[in-house]
Design a protein that fits this description.
The chain has 361 residues and is α+β, with helices and mostly antiparallel strands. The protein is built from four helices and 20 strands. The protein is 33% helix and 35% strand.
Length: 361
């Protein structure tokens, strides 16, 4: 008697199981394929501020969140030694200028000596010519003639030597003055290295140092960046980087705006992979900025790489890893096109009348 009830029970069980299997017919819909990326918002223009010299920070002129203009003073390094060198350079310039142009300068003295020598040469020249004329007339003695000639030649040599000395002294003093000016300019440039100015108009996003701290040229003092324009930095997995192009549209969701999405356009793809994260860096710009943006906002993005209108689709959970589906008529292989997290485009193998059975997990 028990055997008579076995087959009906099995039949009822099979019917019940079949009723509980999830079924689906392929449907026409618009499908979008995208690449996922993590997102970080940064100023369009930003840089880390470094010192040019090693020293103690004497004074900081800005605070975090301050707006700064281009060439605005940010901080100053203590400059006791540099100030002394600057003062010495100024004194050297004053001395060199006095030697070249001052009332008590060497050139003034040489000018006076040169004028006396010129007058003496003129006098000795007249005396020599007179003696020479007399000597030709056999008037006077040979000794007087020779003495007059010797005095004239001596005065001429002295005048010539003084002219050369004056010219050389003038060159030397002018060179000394120029060297002193060059040194002063160099010290001014060196002293300027102890004061650091902003290279851009923007905002102080972060300061890493305080007054009284030692700073080296290898240590960043702070970060300054633009305030009105921001860029979206994205990390793309290396398996997806070849699928995106400059100009692709990104749909972005920021953690700071959980109920909003924003659109951006890719405008830069960095060619080198980060060996630490195994990702490529990509930059995009917002089509329309969110109401408020801050340096470091994070979120995620979907980069749209393809859109198909009115495509035949099935849910992704109905597709096996071997691109096959289970139907009421058995397992079938299909050709797929676009896909995203929810749906897969079917190019061939089944149609909208095919009844699919969801495979067991």
């Amino acid at each position: 008697m028990k055997k008579k009830h076995i087959f009906p029970f099995i039949l009822l069980f099979a019917i019940a199981c079949n009723k509980h299997k999830e079924k689906f017919n392929p449907q026409l819909r618009d499908i979008t394929e995208s690449v996922y990326a993590s997102v970080k918002v940064s100023p369009m223009e930003s840089y880390l501020v470094y010192a040019n010299k090693t020293g103690i920070i004497d004074h900081i002129y800005v605070e975090e969140n301050d707006s700064v203009a281009m060439n605005q003073l940010l901080f100053k390094i203590r400059t006791v030694e540099a100030d002394n060198q600057m003062e010495n350079a100024k004194l050297d310039v004053q001395q060199a200028q006095s030697d070249l142009k001052g009332d008590e300068s060497l050139l003034k003295s040489l000018t006076l000596d040169l004028e006396i020598a010129r007058q003496q040469l003129a006098l000795d020249s007249i005396n020599f010519l007179r003696q020479e004329r007399l000597w030709k007339q056999n008037i006077g003695s040979k000794v007087e003639y020779d003495n007059a000639k010797l005095a004239y030649e001596k005065a001429a040599n002295k005048y010539s030597a003084l002219k050369k000395r004056y010219a050389q002294t003038q060159i030397n003093l002018a060179n000394n003055y120029k060297k002193a000016l060059n040194r002063l300019e160099q010290e001014e440039s060196t002293l300027k290295d102890y004061t650091i100015e902003s290279k851009i108009k923007g905002k102080v996003y972060q300061l890493f140092k305080e007054e009284g701290e030692l700073i080296h040229p290898q240590e960043a003092f702070g970060e300054i960046g633009s305030t009105k324009s921001f860029k979206v930095e994205m990390d793309i997995d290396e398996v997806d980087i070849t699928r995106i192009e400059i100009g692709d549209t990104c749909i972005i969701k920021l953690d700071a705006y959980p109920n909003q999405v924003f659109e951006a356009i890719i405008d830069k793809i960095y060619p080198k992979k980060d060996e630490t994260t195994l990702t490529f860096k990509v930059e995009s710009s917002f089509v329309e900025n969110p109401p408020k943006l801050y340096n470091g906002l994070s979120g995620e993005a979907n980069i749209i790489i393809a859109i198909r209108k009115n495509a035949l689709t099935i849910p992704t959970e109905y597709l096996s890893s071997s691109n096959t589906v289970f139907t009421e008529g058995g397992e079938k292989e299909i050709e797929i096109g676009l896909r995203n997290l929810e749906f897969v485009e079917v190019l061939s193998g089944i149609d909208s009348t095919t009844v699919l059975i969801k495979p067991k997990l």
